[in-house]
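During the reporting period the student researcher (J.K.) took over the structure-prediction task from the postdoctoral fellow and processed the backlog of single-chain submissions. One of the processed entries is reproduced below for the supervisory committee.
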Amino acid sequence: MTTRTIAVVSAGLSNPSSTRLLADRLATATVEALRARGDDATVEVVELREHARGLADDLTTGFANPELQAAIDTVVGADAVIAVTPVFSASYSGLFKTFFDVIDSDALIGTPVLLAATAGTARHSLVVEFAMRPLFAYLRAVPVPTGVFAAGEDWAGGGSTALADRVDRAAGELADTVGGRPAATRPVDPFADPTTSFEELLKGS
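J.K. obtained the following structure tokens:
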């Protein structure tokens, strides 16, 4: 059994916050998905609001304080990252962007990432695709296909079924990527085998 490290980056500003709530649900679902695939997992959470002053100092001085550096090392050294931001002005928050600005642009190359966002209204539901995904494409990370967005109404009555389904699907994709498994089972294409003659393929059909 392999133990995977999952770094959770939460950019929520309040305590508690819907951003942290979504981050915790995604982390729990990912751990369960990894265990179902034969791996174990540990989760390390980075609360960006605790590093707001350190991030500002890093931008102006170019040096991270010990606490911020520990948070950066946690994310850079993880097997996978769950990145969750609240939506401000139709995009990720400034705190979220600043954190990934101070990380070396090559540090997350090839790292599997699950992208998620929260907002008060579903009007912002495309922020994952049109704001977050380009950021992590620039960083050359590997975002899983399913992004998770949660609006205020998704939390009514303990959470909607649709949100729970998205959480489970995204967590499963992250677990597949971390474990080196394909995210989906695809049918084998016999015509893709160059060692089989066309006549043999016809006989097989």
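The committee noted the following: Residues 11 and 159 are 20 Å apart (CA to CA).
J.K. will present the remaining backlog at the next meeting.
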